[in-house]
Design a protein that fits this description.
The complex is a heterodimer of chains A (124) and B (239). Chain A has 6 helices and no strands. Helices cover 82% and strands 0% of the residues of chain B. In chain B, helix 12 crosses helix 13. The chains are: A mainly alpha (124), B mainly alpha (239). The interface between A and B is large, with 82 and 122 residues.
């Protein structure tokens, strides 16, 4: 567990150094993510070793957003002035973006024959 | 026995109390989510935020004091983002097969998110730094803040807008895509990752592993694309 965590943190650290050192548009953890994928391709044993730790982290991904989320409350006065416009812009654009992204994805999948029967949601 | 007020003044200054409170609030949020049979409106992040906000308000604690304790949880966002690499690696054969659909979904989702948000806000007479703070709200918080700073937005407002977008996206995605009859887990996950970054990805992992993997990819790709589109779109709307 500690060894896996140290490995994951090392990828983040290298990612952070690369992101800042090379002025990349991606934040350090995202660079670390890409490096981790590359390392797993090069050495599949790595994936097996860190899998329990990554599953533990991802199972509770929601938890890690809570402290920043509480910050919304601290900034409520910022939102009050343009509240209605901002709320409708957020809600409207998020609905449209999810719909547009999902429809574009599935239409293109049909056009290019990239159908994946194992990835279909069963009807409830 | 020691005066309870002394114990309180000791606890309220250290990280122990607010770290424990953050974990407890999340566990309650998670329990509500399970009790609702994993319905998307019972979002554990939202429940935990409301509980903690009430607690801070009730005890007269400011956010800076709270964050002293909660920063340990906040820090884990970084390693958790790196950990998204593993489901991506596990799904690589699937990802290779879906390159074109992902490109189409990315371009559509990313540009619609930015342009429609700016258009609606502009319709309400919003402009200047608030509009600039809104433009990158669908992308992951550290990237969004960086973009907002570059195009004249306010970092704290951007952070709040990013989080609210994520929570709203995580709540709306399941009923929305059911109504549109999208059954492909790849499309469902990818689109919520593009539109609602990590909080959307957390929701996708709650529902399906493949959706979670594709959501993580959507989030990462949109971090790059938003950095390019947001300044252009803002100029279009005269921000």
């Amino acid at each position: 567990m500690i060894a896996s965590l140290a490995l994951i943190l090392s990828f983040q650290l290298v990612g952070e150094i690369a992101s800042r050192g090379l002025n990349l548009p991606l934040p350090g953890p995202v660079v670390g993510l890409l490096l981790l994928v590359g390392a797993c391709i090069a050495r599949p044993g790595l994936a097996r070793r860190i899998r329990p730790a990554t599953q533990g982290l991802l199972q509770h991904l929601s938890l890690f957003f809570v402290p920043a989320g509480v910050g919304i409350v601290a900034h409520l006065q910022l939102l009050r002035q343009d509240g209605l416009g901002l709320a409708l812009a957020l809600a409207g654009s998020t609905i449209l973006a999810i719909a547009a992204g999902a429809l574009a994805f599935s239409w293109t999948a049909r056009l290019t024959g990239s159908i994946d029967p194992a990835a279909l949601k069963s009807d409830d | 026995m020691t005066d309870p007020l002394l114990i309180w003044s000791y606890l309220s200054e250290g990280p122990l109390l607010w770290l424990t409170a953050t974990l407890a609030a999340y566990l309650i949020g998670d329990a509500v989510f399970r009790a609702s049979r994993r319905k998307s409106w019972a979002n554990p992040v939202l429940v935990a935020i409301i509980l903690l906000a009430l607690l801070l308000w009730g005890t007269g604690t400011d956010y800076a004091t709270y964050f002293e304790g909660a920063q340990f949880v906040h820090f884990m966002l970084g390693p958790a983002t790196v950990a998204l690499g593993l489901p991506l690696y596990d799904n690589l054969p699937r990802v290779r097969k879906a390159a074109w659909p992902m490109l189409a979904g990315l371009l559509a989702g990313s540009s619609v998110a930015i342009v429609s948000a700016l258009a609606i806000a502009k319709g309400f007479g919003i402009g200047g730094p608030v509009l600039a703070s809104l433009a990158p709200k669908s992308t992951t918080a550290p990237v969004a803040i960086g973009i907002a700073e570059r195009i004249g937005g306010q970092p704290t407002l951007t952070a709040a807008l990013v989080l609210m977008t994520g929570i709203f996206g995580a709540i709306i995605v399941t009923p929305l895509l059911n109504a549109l009859r999208i059954r492909d887990w790849r499309a469902r996950g990818f689109s919520v990752g593009v539109a609602a970054h990590g909080i959307g990805t957390a929701r996708a992992f709650q529902v399906n592993e493949t959706a979670g993997a594709f959501s993580g990819i959507g989030m990462g790709l949109n971090a790059v694309l938003t950095a390019i589109i947001a300044p252009l779109a803002l100029r279009l709307f005269g921000g």
